Amino acid sequence: MSFGKIAVDWEERINLDRMRRERVERAKTACKKHGLEAALLLHNDNVRYVGGGDGVHMWHGVSGYRYALFFTEGETVLYEAGMRKNYMERALPWCKVEYAIPIMPYLATSTPEGVYEKQLEKFANQIKASLKEHKLSKEVLGIDTNSPAVINALKKVGIETSLKCSKAMMEARKIKTKDEVECLRMAAGIAEAIFSEFKKVIKPGVTEMQLRAIATYTAYMAGADWASAPDINSGPHTSQGMTIQCSDRAIRPGDLIAAALCNISYNGYKTCYYRTFSCGRPTEAQKDAYKKALDLLYSAINAIKPGATTKDIAEKWPRAQDMGSAKRPNEDAAVLMQWGHGIGLGLYETPVISRIWSLDFPEKLEPGMTIALETLWPTEEKSYEYPYGQAVRIEEMLHVTETGVEILSKWPVDEITVCEI
Amino acid sequence: MSFGKIAVDWEERINLDRMRRERVERAKTACKKHGLEAALLLHNDNVRYVGGGDGVHMWHGVSGYRYALFFTEGETVLYEAGMRKNYMERALPWCKVEYAIPIMPYLATSTPEGVYEKQLEKFANQIKASLKEHKLSKEVLGIDTNSPAVINALKKVGIETSLKCSKAMMEARKIKTKDEVECLRMAAGIAEAIFSEFKKVIKPGVTEMQLRAIATYTAYMAGADWASAPDINSGPHTSQGMTIQCSDRAIRPGDLIAAALCNISYNGYKTCYYRTFSCGRPTEAQKDAYKKALDLLYSAINAIKPGATTKDIAEKWPRAQDMGSAKRPNEDAAVLMQWGHGIGLGLYETPVISRIWSLDFPEKLEPGMTIALETLWPTEEKSYEYPYGQAVRIEEMLHVTETGVEILSKWPVDEITVCEI
Questions:
Q1: Is residue B10 part of a domain?
Q2: B187 and B165 share a domain?
Q3: What is the maximum span of chain B, computed from C-alpha positions, in angstroms?
Q4: Complex ipTM above 0.95?
Q5: Cα–Cα dist A173/A175, whole Å
Q6: Distance from the CA of A256 to the CA of which of A206, A230, A241, A335 falls in 20 to 30 A?
């Protein structure tokens, strides 16, 4: 693989039915391991993992429009915003679908005193009734979100909750099934269509925002189900890192352009995939910075093998104080500069790799994990246009295998992508 | 107004300096009213309101990469992710900028036991030191996010917190300054560029996702600083509401297309602006549904005048049980169907209007509020293609004035926008 994206009867592509069944099995095993028979899932990624259906993108994380009760024995109950319920019953025949009680977090601050409390009371009674129906009213209910308001509302109706559920869901999700890995491969392929457009259109006068326009257009035309907002940093906006999301700054000859394609999503699975472009031929200093960032990236990738830990990766990266002119006083102040994270339905899944904690809290790398590793290095070439210099940013998406590593991202990485002027 | 978006010396456009100063004044007044001398702001919208600088879009709400200490007397301290600090010092000269301690919420579940606690401990000590420096170490610290982990970490170092800060910030933000209203006008104008493209390109075979591609492209080219992901529902996806975000469904003759342009952002200010299109000439049933949705929308708008309340609006809307074939068993199950909300830096600000609570908890409408009102009505015309029928969706953005209301949204609303085939 990878084959095409359209459903066809003449070639097995991503087997979505198998993917759904295997995800549910993984979630059941993880909940049982933590002694949970029922789990209240409020986080969109967890709801999608066990139930499917797309969430509401504008509310990442916990929307309060939809939630699910997941049982180690029995069918998942999906609670959906009223407008969506009828449709969801047809769309997701593997769930029981009920009307959600809206408990959107913003109600707590943008409505009068009493509104949020009243909503939570109705919600807690709804959950209580469902647990009773499942003969689980005396069990501890797993919950994946540390919301004091929700937890207290459940407590008031006699439901004891356990936050172990968050960890259980992360544990389930950290190992990807074959089809999940294929979804990530598809997402990476969409990002490559964007890089290919960038190589064509980057030239003096093009703005960062125009590149973002082209990026989201290309992503949706190539089959992304969400393209969020790619970050494009050019010239001084790359000063020792990525400083902004995107702006109307026009690119000039001599600029580096760091293109960060996060959250380009295929069937819910996200990219985190960066490349650096140059407007015109790069200088020796720019090439040197690139070589250093590449060395940091591949020394980390080469450290991945069965039995290795996140510490083995983090040790390949320099101390915050030793990053040339991009140096920082301590590791906290160098967050994201050399960085790694699990990737799947969520942009950040287990393991999250940083010198801030991975040296002291190592985690074992396991076959089936999918990880994105990102590195950065400054150019050291300063001027009036670039008072802090520029920086190079690269990231690869990879799949830990039984014997080592498969790189999911295929855009040429050996040197800066040059956009001739 | 509105004039252009580029900074020019020959015409006063949005006065961003005045906007920033007036926002800070409003926040100071609100904090003082609630007895707060210092406020820890973790929510991106609040940080932007008092400090400026763009947040990290992929983490709505509380990112844990940046936060601010806001003082009723003294300069705001902005804590920024390391990579951004140097740049932010130059970009935001009205703030003192420090390195943030990363306390990203996902650390709680996707890192080993102990990591999140250690990060929060460093963070709490940093905040404590700053309060001491400002001679406020004995005061109650306002906080805008009900995070038990953060609140406990602060408590451990002796800082007592008050969640009144959330309300105070919402109160400050609910009345918009002249320049904020102009930002919303600009955002509405960008959405109109998208509707104009839709009118041209909607025809049989075009997919919802292709419309989304065109929408984000058009928004960024027209000056949006974020275009999230417009929701496009066509044909059966509009069954009695909006059921999905967007898909690869191809549009067919006879379809209604509900285009929901939320979160198209200009200088941080968001749209919530919906229109309905038809692929070919609409049927009488479609026109009837549109007329009903329009009546609901404008009877609500006409109820807005000084002294009116959110109850006066909600009363214009039908009971959940009385919405034709889109009827719902109760008001919770009809959430969003007839709906209103304040709009500004946040998509949902004060007041949030719904029959779920506004009849029992009325709020006074005030000059300077900016509100989006959205209505929905089903067509009642069912078939094999549309087993639940279709639905019409319309939304206007408006500005409450001293005497009544100004409609910020200008795309023709009197009938379905017809896309000839």
A1: no
A2: no
A3: 71
A4: yes
A5: 6
A6: A335
